[in-house]
Design a protein that fits this description.
It is a single chain. By secondary structure, the chain is α+β, with helices and mostly antiparallel strands. The chain has one domain. It has helices at residues 2-43, 80-94, 102-130, and strands at 47-56, 63-72. It has a two-stranded antiparallel sheet with strand order 1-2. The longest helix is centred in the N-terminal third of the chain and has 42 residues, at 2-43. The chain starts with a helix and ends in a 9-residue tail after the last helix.
Protein backbone atom coordinates (compact mmCIF):
# COMPACT_ATOMS: atom_id res chain seq x y z
CA UNK A 1 0.00 0.00 0.00
CA UNK A 2 2.86 2.38 0.77
CA UNK A 3 4.35 1.88 -2.72
CA UNK A 4 1.00 2.79 -4.36
CA UNK A 5 0.79 5.96 -2.24
CA UNK A 6 4.32 6.98 -3.25
CA UNK A 7 3.60 6.38 -6.95
CA UNK A 8 0.37 8.35 -6.66
CA UNK A 9 2.24 11.19 -4.95
CA UNK A 10 4.95 11.28 -7.63
CA UNK A 11 2.30 11.34 -10.37
CA UNK A 12 0.38 14.07 -8.52
CA UNK A 13 3.51 16.19 -8.15
CA UNK A 14 4.33 15.75 -11.84
CA UNK A 15 0.79 16.75 -12.82
CA UNK A 16 0.97 19.82 -10.58
CA UNK A 17 4.25 20.85 -12.29
CA UNK A 18 2.72 20.32 -15.73
CA UNK A 19 -0.33 22.40 -14.77
CA UNK A 20 1.92 25.21 -13.48
CA UNK A 21 3.87 25.22 -16.74
CA UNK A 22 0.65 25.31 -18.76
CA UNK A 23 -0.70 28.21 -16.69
CA UNK A 24 2.57 30.11 -17.18
CA UNK A 25 2.44 29.50 -20.94
CA UNK A 26 -1.17 30.72 -21.04
CA UNK A 27 -0.23 33.92 -19.20
CA UNK A 28 2.70 34.52 -21.55
CA UNK A 29 0.48 33.90 -24.56
CA UNK A 30 -2.13 36.41 -23.38
CA UNK A 31 0.53 39.02 -22.61
CA UNK A 32 2.18 38.60 -26.04
CA UNK A 33 -1.15 38.82 -27.89
CA UNK A 34 -2.11 41.99 -25.99
CA UNK A 35 1.34 43.51 -26.60
CA UNK A 36 1.26 42.93 -30.36
CA UNK A 37 -2.39 44.01 -30.68
CA UNK A 38 -1.48 47.34 -29.07
CA UNK A 39 1.23 47.94 -31.69
CA UNK A 40 -1.13 46.97 -34.49
CA UNK A 41 -4.08 49.03 -33.26
CA UNK A 42 -2.11 52.26 -32.81
CA UNK A 43 0.13 51.75 -35.87
CA UNK A 44 -2.83 51.30 -38.21
CA UNK A 45 -1.78 51.33 -41.86
CA UNK A 46 1.88 51.72 -40.83
CA UNK A 47 1.88 48.43 -38.89
CA UNK A 48 2.55 45.17 -40.67
CA UNK A 49 1.13 41.73 -40.06
CA UNK A 50 1.53 40.24 -36.60
CA UNK A 51 3.91 37.26 -36.52
CA UNK A 52 4.00 34.92 -33.56
CA UNK A 53 6.51 32.36 -32.31
CA UNK A 54 5.19 29.22 -30.66
CA UNK A 55 6.39 26.86 -27.94
CA UNK A 56 5.13 23.33 -27.54
CA UNK A 57 3.43 22.67 -24.21
CA UNK A 58 4.53 19.99 -21.76
CA UNK A 59 2.04 17.50 -23.21
CA UNK A 60 3.87 17.76 -26.55
CA UNK A 61 0.65 18.57 -28.41
CA UNK A 62 -0.67 22.08 -27.75
CA UNK A 63 1.32 25.08 -28.98
CA UNK A 64 1.43 28.34 -27.05
CA UNK A 65 2.35 31.82 -28.34
CA UNK A 66 5.50 32.88 -26.52
CA UNK A 67 6.80 35.76 -28.67
CA UNK A 68 5.59 38.07 -31.38
CA UNK A 69 6.44 40.97 -33.62
CA UNK A 70 4.78 43.61 -35.74
CA UNK A 71 6.87 45.63 -38.16
CA UNK A 72 6.37 49.39 -38.17
CA UNK A 73 7.05 51.38 -41.34
CA UNK A 74 9.82 53.90 -40.60
CA UNK A 75 10.14 55.11 -44.20
CA UNK A 76 9.79 58.82 -44.91
CA UNK A 77 6.80 60.24 -46.72
CA UNK A 78 6.73 62.62 -49.70
CA UNK A 79 6.85 65.76 -47.60
CA UNK A 80 8.44 66.63 -44.25
CA UNK A 81 5.02 67.49 -42.83
CA UNK A 82 3.63 64.06 -43.78
CA UNK A 83 6.75 62.37 -42.42
CA UNK A 84 6.40 64.17 -39.08
CA UNK A 85 2.76 63.06 -38.77
CA UNK A 86 3.64 59.48 -39.66
CA UNK A 87 6.55 59.34 -37.20
CA UNK A 88 4.29 60.57 -34.43
CA UNK A 89 2.01 57.60 -35.11
CA UNK A 90 4.97 55.20 -35.31
CA UNK A 91 6.36 56.48 -32.02
CA UNK A 92 2.98 56.04 -30.33
CA UNK A 93 2.59 52.56 -31.83
CA UNK A 94 6.03 51.49 -30.64
CA UNK A 95 5.21 52.61 -27.10
CA UNK A 96 1.57 51.46 -27.13
CA UNK A 97 1.99 48.28 -25.04
CA UNK A 98 2.06 48.72 -21.28
CA UNK A 99 5.42 46.92 -21.25
CA UNK A 100 7.46 48.16 -24.24
CA UNK A 101 10.47 46.00 -25.06
CA UNK A 102 13.97 47.38 -25.68
CA UNK A 103 13.29 46.99 -29.42
CA UNK A 104 10.03 48.95 -29.05
CA UNK A 105 11.92 51.75 -27.31
CA UNK A 106 14.56 51.80 -30.07
CA UNK A 107 11.88 52.10 -32.75
CA UNK A 108 10.21 54.93 -30.80
CA UNK A 109 13.57 56.73 -30.55
CA UNK A 110 14.20 56.38 -34.28
CA UNK A 111 10.70 57.70 -35.02
CA UNK A 112 11.24 60.63 -32.64
CA UNK A 113 14.51 61.57 -34.36
CA UNK A 114 12.96 61.30 -37.82
CA UNK A 115 10.01 63.39 -36.64
CA UNK A 116 12.33 66.12 -35.31
CA UNK A 117 14.32 66.17 -38.55
CA UNK A 118 11.12 66.39 -40.60
CA UNK A 119 9.79 69.23 -38.43
CA UNK A 120 13.07 71.13 -38.82
CA UNK A 121 13.04 70.56 -42.57
CA UNK A 122 9.41 71.68 -42.72
CA UNK A 123 10.22 74.86 -40.76
CA UNK A 124 13.13 75.64 -43.07
CA UNK A 125 10.92 75.09 -46.12
CA UNK A 126 8.19 77.32 -44.72
CA UNK A 127 10.72 80.06 -43.92
CA UNK A 128 12.22 79.86 -47.40
CA UNK A 129 8.76 79.94 -48.95
CA UNK A 130 7.96 83.09 -46.97
CA UNK A 131 11.08 84.70 -48.37
CA UNK A 132 10.26 83.50 -51.88
CA UNK A 133 13.24 81.17 -52.18
CA UNK A 134 13.15 77.99 -54.24
CA UNK A 135 13.93 74.80 -52.37
CA UNK A 136 15.96 72.00 -53.87
CA UNK A 137 14.57 68.81 -52.21
CA UNK A 138 17.27 66.65 -53.76
CA UNK A 139 19.86 67.85 -51.25
Amino acid sequence: MEIKTQIFSINSIEQIKVNEIIQTLKRIQQRVISHERAHKAVGGKYAGTVHYSYTKGPDGKKMYITAGEVSLDLSEEASPKETAKKMEIIQAAALAPSDPSPQDIRVAQIAAIKKMRAEIENSVEEERNKKGLIINRSI
